[in-house]
């Protein structure tokens, strides 16, 4: 089917679903054969805008639209159900982040995909990690993969540019609740950051997490988190995020034996040491002298194409060609999710979590939080802005 239009359906017509449709409608390689939302009025309105058919359940969309592939942009818990139903029918899936709320659901999705591939080996499963396409992130990955830093010592990421007001949390009845969203900043704002961390440095072997529940907002989930990571290779990591700082920071430091890489304010700087710091520690005749280092601002092509459309174009090409390279393969989504779940489990239990983590323990804790919740959700409409099902 190379070069033929891919018949695509979209499930979930909140902020992200509509955002995707704006560029999908301009792609020559895509035919939008149906859109779906449980709010019938919304589905009808969007379908009219894009001259396609509206559906009110994903099962009906899958059965009647003739689609070959689906973009899933529904609230987090529903990623699992919709994806598994698609795999059972041999439908290609591109899922919004996060892959799921907890690792057990992610494992179910991956198992369903692997089972479906036995019947349809060319079946494609992608995940919308568009931040991997951003020029600075790609350059950091390139430098690390090239080994210029040598043995990695430390990675510290402070990302507190996620400021959110109370009105934001009040703008949707599913937001910032254990039952509706399954978590706070780690589940909503930070799946991209968690994915980038594992993409750059791998999954840690031991995690300590410190999560504060509703510290600055009237919510029942976490709005301030610090994670401490230990990796098999000896590297340590720090992950610091919140929705309650303004002006926030986005600073990543990566330290290796051959220097330090710093990304902040759209600038990437490499402090390159003249020799291995590890070798210098052992052999230097100076008690306190530093290794000579050179300041280098790394050139980055910020005009390179990036964003959601790049992820989609790779996905569509893979569907057309019966396989191909994706920006992020669906099963990779469990890695960042594992880090996030482990941070929360560590915080709840006040213990170090060793990976692979106990998925049952975390799922059980989530269910306990849902069942015991006495939180009364206040929902306020935001005039002129539809945020009810917006993700992010």
TrEMBL record:
Domain of life: Bacteria
GO molecular function: nucleotide binding
Occurrences of domain GFO/IDH/MocA-like oxidoreductase (ranges): 138-261
PANTHER family, sorted: D-GLUCOSIDE 3-DEHYDROGENASE, UDP-N-ACETYL-2-AMINO-2-DEOXY-D-GLUCURONATE OXIDASE
SUPFAM superfamilies to which the protein is assigned, alphabetical: Glyceraldehyde-3-phosphate dehydrogenase-like, C-terminal domain, NAD(P)-binding Rossmann-fold domains
Ranges annotated as spanning the membrane: none
Taxonomic lineage from the root: Bacteria, Bacillati, Bacillota, Bacilli, Bacillales
Protein name: Gfo/Idh/MocA family oxidoreductase
Organism the protein comes from: Paenibacillus piri
Record-linked InterPro entries: Gfo/Idh/MocA-like_OxRdtase_N, Gfo/Idh/MocA_Oxidoreductase, GFO_IDH_MocA-like_dom, NAD(P)-bd_dom_sf
Domain Gfo/Idh/MocA-like oxidoreductase N-terminal: 7-117
